[in-house]
Amino acid sequence: MLLDYISLEKVSGQSDLDAVVVSVVPRLRPVVLAAGTTALGIVPLLQDVF
Fold first, then answer.
1. Residue 45 in contact with residue 37, Cβ under 8 Å?
2. Could you tell me which residues come within 8 angstroms of residue 47 by beta carbon, excluding any fewer than 6 positions away?
3. The pLDDT value given to residue 50
4. Confidence of residue 44 (pLDDT cuts 50, 70, 90)
5. Average pLDDT, whole number, for the chain?
6. What's the pTM?
7. Distance CA 29, CA 16 (A)
8. How far apart are CA 10 and CA 34, in angstroms?
9. How many C-beta atoms lie closer than 10 Å to residue 19's C-beta?
10. Residue 16 near residue 10 (C-beta atoms within 8 A)
11. Closest to 22 in 3D by CA, of 39, 10, 38
12. Cα separation, 33 vs 27, whole angstroms
């Protein structure tokens, strides 16, 4: 999905760096939220280990 979006941005006339930046910014929020919820979900399990 990300590579396709980068390709579309390149075709529209963006430089390589600009195409990557424009493509990554909308995908960054969901990735960070997924990583954050995973980390927070593991926190209660850590109490059982010790």
1. no
2. none
3. 58
4. confident
5. 91
6. 0.61
7. 22
8. 28
9. 19
10. yes
11. 10
12. 10
